[in-house]
Amino acid sequence: MKEHSALDALLAPGGIRPLYQPLYALTHGDPRLFAFECLSRGPQGTNFEKAPVLFEYVRLKRQEALVDRICIATALEQLPVMSRETKVCVNVHASTLARDAGFIDFLARAIQKADLHPARVIVDVIQHAPAHDGDGFAHAVTRLRTLGVAIALDDIGVGASNFKMLLDVSPDYMKLDRCIVDGCHDDSKRCAVIESLVELASRLNSTVVAEGIETDDDLVIVQSLGVKIVQGFLLALPAEGRKLVTCPSLSASSVA
Amino acid sequence: MQATGRERSAPRHRILIVDDEELIVQAMRKYFAGLGYDVDSAFELEEAQALLGNYRYDLVIADLRLTGVGGVEGLQIVADVRQRWANARVMLLSAYGTPEIERESYQRGADAFLHKPKAMMEIAHVAVNLLENA
Q1: What ipTM score was computed for the predicted complex, to two decimals?
Q2: DSSP bridge partners of A239
Q3: Cβ contacts of B46 on chain A, cutoff 8 Å
Q4: What is the pLDDT of residues B71-91, one digit of tens each?
Q5: Chain A residues with CB-CB distance to B under 8 A?
Q6: Can you tell me the distance from the alpha carbon of A100 to that of A136, in angstroms, rounded to the nearest whole number?
C-alpha cells in the first residue's frame, strides 16, 4: 500500500505548481495585457497535472480551503514581472469563502506580502456546488469588498454559477465558460447567449470576460458582440512566471 | 510473459487501473500498455473518482480494498462507473472477496469479479473479453 496519499504530495512544498495565463483587454486597437490569472497544477507525471482532475480530487477530499490557500500563496510568491497597471486574478472556491472564516485575513496578508495593491487583485469565485453556508458566503463577499479587491464569477453559464450567484455576488467581472465561447463564430445560438450576457453584464455594472478563445474567428466575433476582455490559447498559453515575457500589447508579448 | 496474438491486435481502448499497491499498478500499467491500450491509474478512491469525472474509460479494473482493513471502496467505483458510463466495463479484484461481496459487486453492476492472486495473463484474458463484448 502507498504510505502517503496523493493529497500529502499536493500539500507538501512544491506540490502545487503555479502557472499564469494573460487576459487581454480589447478596448482600444490591439489587445492589451489586462491581467494574469494564477492557475495551479499538481506534480508533473501525475494525474494532477490536469487542473480538472486536481480540483475534483481536492473537492472530493473536502480540502478546497487548504488547497486554495496553498495555490494563492504559491502563485503570489512567484508572480511574473509586470507593470503596476496589470491586475492579478486568483481563484477561490465559493465553499472556501463560505466555510473558511480566516480566509479573507489570509488573503489580505498574502496580497500585502506580494506588494500588490488590493485594487489590482481580482478574486475569481469558482462554484462547483452550492456554498451551503449562505451567511458565511455573503459575509465573505462583503469582506472582500471592504478589502478592496474586485470579484469575478467564474464559469458563467455552467454548473452552479447561475443567476442567483450573480445577484448574491454582484461581480465586477463575469467570466463566460469556454463551452459557451468555443465555436461561437459559426453558431448563432452561442452568439445570442454571449450577446445577452454582455447586455446583462452592462446592466449589472459588470464586465464580461470570454474564456477559451482559441481561434481568430471566435476572437473577432466576441469582440463584435461587445466582449471587452478575452483569454485563451490563441492569445497565450499558461506558463511559469519566470518564462513569461510580457509587454503591454498582445503583438509584442510572448511566452518564452 | 508473452501476449497472445489476439491480445496484440486489441484496439486502443482506454483502461483505468485502481489499486493501492504501487507495484501492482506499475506491473498492470506496463502489461496493458504493452497490449496496446491507453492506461491511466489511480491509487485511491477519490483519485479514481476524479478521473472518472473527467475522462471516459472503456474498462475499469479496481481492487476491492483501497484503504486497508475492511475497505470495500471498489464497490463505490463500480457504482460510479455505472452511474456515468452505461457501456463501460468494470472488473473487481480482491484477495478478500466473500460470496456476499462478490454477489453485491454484480448487483451494483460489476462485469467480472476475480479472486487474487491471479496471473496477469488471466486478468488480461478477462479484460480483453469484456472489451470485445462491450
Answers
A1: 0.85
A2: A20
A3: 57, 60-61
A4: 899 999 999 999 998 899 999
A5: 1-2, 5-6, 47, 50, 52-54, 56-57, 60-61
A6: 9
Cell numbers linked to A223: 469582440
**Mutate which of B14, B26, B45, B47 to disrupt the A interface (most A C-beta within 10 Å)?**
B47
Residue A219 CB contacts under 8 Å (≥ 6 apart), including other chains: A213, A230, A232, A234, A235
> Which of A5, A52, A61 lies closest to B54 in CB terms?
A52
Query: CA separation (Å) from B63 to B53, B93, B103?
Result: 19, 5, 16
pTM of the model: 0.88
Residue of A nearest to B20 (CA): A1
| C-beta of residue B12 within 8 angstroms of C-beta of residue B34 | no
How far apart CA A108 and CA A129 sit, in angstroms, is: 25
Inter-chain residue contact A56 with B47, CB threshold 8 Å? no
Q: State whether residue B21 is helix, strand or coil.
A: coil
**What span, in angstroms and rounded, lies between the C-alpha atoms of A173 and A201?**
8
Q: Nearest-CA distance from B3 to chain A in Å?
A: 27
Question: Whose CA is closest to B1, among B25, B43, B35?
Answer: B35
CA-to-CA distance for A228 and A231, rounded, in angstroms?
11
Give A-chain residues touching B24 at CB under 8 angstroms.
none
Contact B46 A53 (CB under 8 A): no
User: How far apart are the C-alpha atoms of A249 and A70, rounded to whole Å?
Assistant: 31
B124 burial (CB, 10 Å; 0-12 / 13-18 / 19+) is: buried
Enter the C-alpha cell of residue B59: 474498462
Task: Give the tens place of pLDDT for each residue, A69-103.
Answer: 999 999 999 998 889 999 999 999 999 999 999 99
Chain A CB contacts of B20 under 8 Å are 1-2
